[in-house]
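hey so i finally got around to running the thing on that chain from the lab meeting. sorry it took forever, my laptop kept dying and i had to restart like 3 times. anyway pasting the input first so we r on the same page abt which one it is
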Amino acid sequence: MHKTGIEEHFIEKDGKRLRFGYTTGTCAAAAAKAAAILLLSGKAPETVSIHTPKGIDLVLPVLEPASDGGSASCAIRKDSGDDPDVTDGVLVYAKVSFSETPGIAIDGGVGVGRVTKPGLKQAIGEAAINPVPREMIRRAIGGIAEEYESAKGLSAVISIPAGVELAAKTFNPRLGIEGGISILGTSGIVEPMSEDALIDSIVLEIRQRRALGDTVLVLTPGNYGADFLKERYGIADERIVKCSNYVGDALCAAAGAGFSEVLLCGHVGKFVKLSGGIFNTHSRLGDHRAELMAAAAKAAGADETTQRAMFDCVTTDEMLRILEENGVLAGTADALKTRIDAALNERFQGLSIGVIVFTTGNRELFKNETAKRRTEETV
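ok and heres what got predicted. didnt touch it at all, straight out
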């Protein structure tokens, strides 16, 4: 088996050794380099070396070389390592051709998306090839042109035929990238189970909503919140940004994008954690639902028996049932609302944050004053 140089790079997580991989941007740059070699030398290399922005050097096998004299094409197979990436194993092609225009031009072909909305790093109409991969491709081709002392203009078209189908499994349709996937990667390397890529996608969507003219950012962790907002308040799906567990990161991104007001909606099972100042709601970072619900119940006047019963519950739905049976549900909801407001105001000063919390069955548990005002108007 060919050694690429990525094998020695890994992380230890939960007792397992997880391999690094390399990005579509690295594949595109390597394929472009191989195609440039084939075009200028007449011979396809078996492997091609590529230096990634992370500082890791790779030697990647070159696949499917083809040439007609005026252009040459090569492919590199994506390896995502042990990261659950939908693009793992796809072939990334680069076709490099002579051009009458001086310099190096880069565009996308089949399976590489086109930008149709503002707010992204490329202008509307351009191929969704991010700045770092573009620079990697440009340097790869430029280095080969210099090596072979070629002063001719060159154009590179990057294609990922599988990207047409894979695009539906990514954020691209929501971001207004049509016809395929994006060529991504700031480091050139895929780190397994990395949260960075997901957070980057959320931040990008938030910036895009601002670029599209939204003055209020509508934010919810996932599909349940989106469905609630659509059914209860008629907010269109494209207006809603899903932030997963990264509530804090999303609110920071909202401020950074220029929003002054956010409408934040979520299920009580996640948002009870906000009352304790927990802004990443993933359970592996701490599941304090019972403690926080019991503290709110105590503030509402619940007796010790009711408070202790919280700790025997598996779900927040069970907790709510107990609170309702003991006549303290409304008071507990008020206490949660007050504590969530306090935690958000302390952490995210300068943002006006409306909060809506619902329960299973799309029953609204409470909303704060900002959310009441906002939902009475047009969001």
